[in-house]
Amino acid sequence: WDNSGLIVGDMSREVLQIVVSLDLDSEMIEDAKEGTLFVVHHPLIFGQLTQLDFAKYPSNLIEKMILKKQSLVALHTNFDQTHLNRYVFEKVLGFKLESQDPFVCTAKGKWHYKELLSLLKEKLNLPTLKVIGKKETITSIALTTGAGASLMDEVEADCFLTGDIKYHDAMKAMSEDLMMVDIGHYESEKFFAEIILEELKVLPLLAIIANSKNPFYT
What we know:
With 218 residues, the chain is of the alpha/beta class. The chain contains seven helices and eleven strands. The chain has helices at residues 26-31, 59-67, 77-92, 113-124, 167-175, 185-189, 192-199; strands spanning 5-8, 17-21, 36-40, 71-74, 99-101, 104-112, 130-132, 137-147, 159-163, 179-182, 207-209. The strands form two sheets. Strands 5-6-8-9-10-7 form a six-stranded mixed beta sheet. A five-stranded mixed beta sheet has the order 1-4-3-2-11. It is elongated.
């Protein structure tokens, strides 16, 4: 169901510059040089594309990229498994990984409710948090970055951290005594660019980070 890999371009085309970002937008395309390769987390083409209406998303961005001979590669759920989930769990939030299966990271320990929420707010720069099934003491924590609520049946922990929790997901979690905290889709994945930039240092090419914008205002 995913669409990782080459989205726009030609695998044999020379690349002059790499720009890494969580998402792609019009301003990035306009600011980037001709021949730039964008490496992003979220695929620009995700579902079935039946027409190229250049007045609508994502065709409007594709047209601009083609005119500037730019390319686009997406590293999505493959990168979640290999890098992103573990990085956020260990490096950002400071949890000690006990297991990972393959999208869910889990740690055991003891956390108090207020201390855990303070940690999440500070490390992810979240002014508020939505919580389901509040527990004063938590002995195990699981995490999936992005929108991971559909994985709750695979979670074996007191508390599940993920983004984009829907109403009916919350009702299900509450009925099954699973505490959930919505840590935001953007907020939990915004570290993609800094991780991939480190990986790209082995290449003899200039790679820079573009600041992806959160589409939601707070």
